[in-house]
Amino acid sequence: MSTIEAPIDRLLARLDAVRGRGEGRWIARCPAHHDHTPSLGIAEGADGVVLVRCHAGCPTPDVLAATGLDMADLFPRRLRRGGRGPRRADARRLPRPDAAAMLAAVGGEAMICALAASDLAAGRALGGDDYARVMAAAATLRRAADAAGRHQA
Ligand SMILES: [Zn+2]
């Protein structure tokens, strides 16, 4: 393949009834359950990481499996592989691949919080599962911040 397909393009091309919902946000029919009214929320972060959330509660890996993708497909290649083609002298300055993957995951958690905030701002209530997911995201971000703090000390 000569061009690198963005994660968002890869996903949207495999979904039905895709509609834009503003900057970097879409809604589509969830492929993992019988979805009459599109209930799959999709968002793209500034770093190209894609967040998927089925409002009916399908686990994201199931949604992706139904499209033939997996979780890694939500991340741009440069985040998955820790950067490509740096000059040797610069290589050690780049984050290690595991650090890059962690940053991508943190970005995904932040997107979950942002999506929830945007639902609330639009007057939509958060369901119990959504609330639990936001709390889990907040806990993950807290742990990541604590871990980063320990490395700096
Ligand atoms: Zn679903």
Automatic annotation (TrEMBL):
<protein>
    <recommendedName>
        <fullName>Zinc finger CHC2-type domain-containing protein</fullName>
    </recommendedName>
</protein>
